[in-house]
Amino acid sequence: MKKKKIVIALGHEALGTTLPEQKEATKRTAKAVADFIREDYQVVITHSNGPQVGMIHTAMNEFCRLYPEYTATPMSVCSAMSQGYIGYDLQNAIRSELLNKGIYKPVATVLTQVVVDPYDEAFYKPSKIIGRVMTEEEAEAEEKKGNHVVKVEDGFRRIVAAPKPIDIVEIDAIKALCDADQVVVACGGGGIPVLAQDNHLKGASAVIEKDLAAGKLAELLDADMLVILTSVDNVCLNYGTENEKPLTVMTVAEAKKYIAEGQFGENDMLPKIQAAIDFIGDSAIKSVLITKLNKEGTHVNGGPGTMITK
């Protein structure tokens, strides 16, 4: 019997912020991942990278500022670096947890590039804040380079576009590892955004919303389920008000209605709901679970969370 394929998207809480936090957080995350594998799911993992890629971008900018003879590090390279070191901790933590449970299964991280459209509207309206706080003089220097900045409370910070993912370059390699029944970590941080130019891939000065990339990954893998781990137990209506209402189930039609009502925050729950809608499409068998990673582990059935179906 063919195993069910599941894509698990790890949020910030599943990874932590600093290096020591990440080391401990991935151990907890590995327990939940191992439970899915023990239940005989074929597992592919993707993850956020917000604090990590911000740290790398800041560090590389500072290095370039102190040593001007070195070339500044492009955003796409910072994204690649974050995929590498988050994947390193994740694959080792998952491998150890599986061996502790008597399961031998290889775990591999695939450095993943995600194709974006150069004409995506997001490039004309950059919105994602990255990097350190700059002075006005430094901000002007960034703008002269063609970069965008925004005023914040303490000064200025750089902003980049967040285009939608349209294809995954390494999808065949990811599929091959899945077919070999290996655990794969891919599309970390939404993937490295690239523009296709004939036979060449050029890194884009952008970040991809990791939930949308997770949905695209699940779609191209023809997964049965997408699990999005976040900071809340359930999707809620009227979130943060006295009329807050947690949802345990939701249909795609209901999700679209709630989006039209403005129920979901643009930078938190909305991308998750949109990823669910895009992944499920017209399928009567695909589903999405949005929930929180808790100490007891995450359950596909009978546990906390919001299940979205057609």
List keywords for this structure.
single chain, 310 residues, alpha/beta, 8-stranded mixed β-sheet, 4-stranded mixed β-sheet, 36% helix, globular
The portion of residues forming beta strands comes to 25-35%
Amino-to-carboxy terminus distance: 24 Å
Structural class: alpha/beta
| Main beta-sheet strand count, sense and barrel state | 8 strands, mixed
Biggest sheet strand order reads 3-9-2-1-12-16-17-15
What gyration radius follows from the Cα positions, in whole Å? 19 Å
**What average pLDDT do the residues reach?**
89
Number of helices: 8
User: What would you call the shape?
Assistant: globular
Low-confidence stretches: none
Q: Order of helices and strands, N to C?
A: EHEHHEEEHEEEHEEEHEEEEHHEE
Per DSSP E runs of 2 or more residues, the count of β-strands stands at 17
Q: Which range best describes the helical content: under 10%, 10-25%, 25-40%, 40-55%, 55-70% or over 70%?
A: 25-40%
What does this entry look like structurally?
This protein is an alpha/beta fold. The protein is 36% helix and 26% strand. It has helices at residues 19-38, 50-66, 75-100, 136-144, 171-179, 210-220, 252-260, 270-280, and strands at residues 4-10, 41-47, 107-109, 113-116, 128-134, 148-152, 155-160, 165-168, 183-185, 192-197, 200-203, 225-230, 235-237, 245-247, 249-251, 287-292, 306-309. It has an 8-stranded mixed beta sheet with strand order 3-9-2-1-12-16-17-15, with helices on both faces. A hairpin with a 7-residue loop joins strand 13 and strand 14 (245-247). Helix 2 (50-66) packs across helix 3 and helix 6 (210-220) packs parallel to helix 8 (270-280). The protein is globular and about 55 Å long.
